[in-house]
């Protein structure tokens, strides 16, 4: 939910070479992830990831538990150092303070925690300053502006632990936006939300990128709530990825090559379903059975 500074590699991989899109450094991208490998505890968690994000682009990072989604987001943030490869934001190996906003995986907030919603958003600005600083009128105006922009100002004075799941997500998004970043990363923001609240959050994020030109990278298990908003999808499995437009990536052929196992993609009732072997998965991207390396997710 706070703003982060940023980090900085190469092995050949059969899936990487067969990716739908394997963009290289073009100098004009907001975010450029180039041939990134990450090892943890002797296991290779990310295996040659390549992707770019342009200004104002909405990218979905899709995969099941253990696919490496959280590891990739933390590598972009600079919390995890690549074994090889590089991550640059606007051509820099370390982004300027405030350039990247982050909404972490949802944690259970104590309903009795005496922290108001606006105090949580204010932490997104405190992280950009040296020392404690003075919270003057301009400071609180920025907090108010960020909260109004996501429809959260009406509950700004309520304890954050007593808000609904959808309201808490709006507060966390405001905290990520309050320092006016160029890019925001969201780790499973739709998890545990009912379909109506999930749709509301996706609509809100789509509006933010359209109005403010902010780039968005959002991780999720299920692509269905995101399909209409996404410019590109990164589908991760066992640390490998394919990148491209949704209709290019979510196909029987591409996902079978990614998982190295027969996969069938079906379209029914306006939803996408991914079937592995004889088993159909309700959340269209749950194919944990074929994850070779369990990573953070």
Helix content: 25-40%
Q: What would CATH call the class?
A: Alpha Beta
Overall number of strands: 13
How far the N terminus sits from the C terminus, by CA atoms, comes to 17 Å
CATH architecture: 3-Layer(aba) Sandwich
Percentage of β-strand residues = 15-25%
What is the CATH topology descriptor?
Answer: Rossmann fold
- Which stretches of 5+ consecutive residues score pLDDT under 50? 1-27, 278-295
Count of alpha and pi helical runs: 8
State the shape. Answer: globular
Number of domains: 1
Descriptive account of the structure:
The chain has 297 residues and is an alpha/beta fold. The chain has one domain (3-290): 3-Layer(aba) Sandwich (Rossmann fold), CATH 3.40.50.300. It is globular, with a radius of gyration of 19 Å. It has helices spanning 14-17, 69-77, 117-126, 137-149, 165-177, 195-212, 246-249, 252-259, and strands at residues 3-4, 31-40, 43-53, 58-62, 84-89, 100-103, 183-187, 215-220, 232-237, 240-244, 263-268, 271-276, 279-280. It has a 7-stranded mixed beta sheet, with helices on both faces. A 3-stranded antiparallel beta sheet has the order 3-2-5, with helices on one face. Strands 11-12-13 form a 3-stranded antiparallel beta sheet. The two termini are 17 Å apart. It contains 8 helices and 13 strands. Belongs to the ABC transporter superfamily.
């Amino acid at each position: 939910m706070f703003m982060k500074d940023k980090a900085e590699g190469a092995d050949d991989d059969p899936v990487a070479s067969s990716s739908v899109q394997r963009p290289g450094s073009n100098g004009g991208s907001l975010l450029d992830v180039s041939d990134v490998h990450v090892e943890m505890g002797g296991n290779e968690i990310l295996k040659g990831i390549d992707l770019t994000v342009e200004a104002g682009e909405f990218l979905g990072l899709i995969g099941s538990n253990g696919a490496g989604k959280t590891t990739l987001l933390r590598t972009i943030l600079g919390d995890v150092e690549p074994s090889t490869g590089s991550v640059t934001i606007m051509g820099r190996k370390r982004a300027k303070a405030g350039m990247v906003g982050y909404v972490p995986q949802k944690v259970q907030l104590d309903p009795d925690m005496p922290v108001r919603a606006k105090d949580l958003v204010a932490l997104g600005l405190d992280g950009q300053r040296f020392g404690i600083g003075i919270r003057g009128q301009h400071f609180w105006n920025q907090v108010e502006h960020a909260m109004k922009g996501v429809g959260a100002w009406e509950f700004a004075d309520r304890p954050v632990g007593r808000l609904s799941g959808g309201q808490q997500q709006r507060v966390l998004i405001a905290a990520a936006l309050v320092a006016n970043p160029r890019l925001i990363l969201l780790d499973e923001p739709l998890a545990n939300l009912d379909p109506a609240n999930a749709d509301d959050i996706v609509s809100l994020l789509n509006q933010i990128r359209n109005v403010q030109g902010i780039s968005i990278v959002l991780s999720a298990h299920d692509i269905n709530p995101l399909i209409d908003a996404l410019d590109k999808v990164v589908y991760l499995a066992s640390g490998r990825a394919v990148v491209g437009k949704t209709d290019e990536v979510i196909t029987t052929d591409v996902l079978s090559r990614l998982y190295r196992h027969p996969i069938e993609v079906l379209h029914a009732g306006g939803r996408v379903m991914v079937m592995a072997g004889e088993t159909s998965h309700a959340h269209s991207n749950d194919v944990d059975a074929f994850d070779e390396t369990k990573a953070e997710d």
